[in-house]
Amino acid sequence: MLLGLNQTLVKIVNTGKHPLFQVGLRSILAAIPVLLFCFIFKKKLSISDGSLLPGIICGALFGIEFVFLFYALEYTSVTRSSILIYSMPVWIGIAAHFLIKDKELNLKRLIGFVL
Fold first, then answer.
1. pTM check: above 0.70
2. Of the candidates 107, 110, 91, which has an alpha carbon nearest to the alpha carbon of residue 99?
3. Which of 43, 62, 82, 107 has a CA-to-CA distance to 55 between 20 and 30 Å?
4. From first to last of its 115 residues, what are the pLDDT tens digits of the chain?
C-alpha cells in the first residue's frame, strides 16, 4: 500500500512542482534521517575507505532512476508505472537467461519467480 501511495502522491505533486525539483527535495530530506541514524548509533561515515567512487556511481544511478520515474508519472498512470517497476526483476531475470552466461533459468530460479 505504501509503495502505491508514494507514486500516487508523486503524481499529485507533479501537477504543481517540476519532477526534478521533487527528486532533489526528496533526496535532501531523506539524507536527514540517515545522518541522524548514523549519529545516534555511532556509525562511522568515511570517504577514505575506497567507497566514495562506487557510492557516487550507485547514488547517481539511483537518482537517475527516480528522475525517470517522476517524469514517467507525468505521461502515464500510477498503475502502469507500478506494474512496470515492480515487475522489473522478472524481466531482468528473463533477459539474464539469454544475455549472461551461467545465469540460465533453472528450476530453483523459476520457483523464485513464482514466489
1. no
2. 91
3. 82
4. 777 788 888 888 888 888 888 888 888 998 999 999 999 999 888 888 888 899 899 989 988 988 898 888 888 988 888 888 888 888 888 899 999 988 888 899 889 888 8
